[in-house]
Amino acid sequence: MLFLITRVSNGLLHVGDFVALYNSSSQLNNSFTNFFAILPGLYEHSLYISNFKEFMNVEAEGSANEEIGISINSIEVNNINYSYNANKQVLFDINFKILKGQKVAFVGPNGAGKSTLVKLLLNLYSQNSGNIQINGKSIKDYSRKSIMDKIGVIFQDSQIFALSVAENVLMRPINNVKEDSEIVKNSLNLVGMYDKINSLKCGMMTKPTREMDPDGTIFSGGEQQKIIFSRIFSREYEVLVLDEPSSAMDGFSEMDLFSKVMRIYNDKIIILISHTLSNVVNCDMIFFMEEGRIIEMGNHKELMVKNGRYAQLFTAQAKGYL
User: Fold this and answer.
1) Predicted TM-score of the model (pTM)
2) Structural contact between residues 272 and 287, judged by C-beta atoms closer than 8 angstroms
3) Which residues lie closer than 8 Å to 32 by C-beta, 6 or more apart?
4) pLDDT at 62
């Protein structure tokens, strides 16, 4: 600026040129300042990318390639213990057996280890001791893909992705438009979402988010859970695990979906995790967990007669409806 003022004072520069050059130099200065401010951010991002690449290159434990087979006739858990670290054990000596066609429930307070147990059944975690068997053979003998193909799961924190509704239901790319459209249509019909989605501009190709598509639609929490729920109707599983999948739904929708699941998967194994005990009354076996242990087991009538922790919790919940 001093240089430009000197030039103007000596008559070597017009005032208009002074203003233009001063503005240009200011813009150049701002550009350099912004550029150098970006460099620390680029370095920080490179650290995240490095960690991500390292994570993606981690080899999965185990190399078993055996397939489970056509059906799952039994799941047996023997003396399972599990801890996230040396100072925190979350499961203690868990034992149970589930046979084909049985409907069982795991209930109890938060932090009892119910969801952790499910992840062990899926071979997502490795137990510290004990063993898990499917059809009489260790779960470690089966490939993870085989387990995922046979066991359908909806976790309480399942996500909607920035893909089309159809891809969110199928959890894969669309391979055959005609066949896959029919699968998606039937699945959405079962959860009561097809009419609404079909009325949208892009139908089942609508994105359930506006992150990647301004024409996407934002669904309510309950509607998102219904779309997630429809995934279990898009294919046939041998075992179904439902971990609090309907917390955002209204009572009528929840009751309707659970009745459809029980009907469609009538001859399969269903494992239900729920804090709402009215959902588990008709289960063949109920396991009440507390502090990482199964402290009570039996059907609803047997547990009510025992008048233990399950009966106390059921009675407390029932009072809320009176």
Assistant:
1) 0.77
2) no
3) none
4) 54
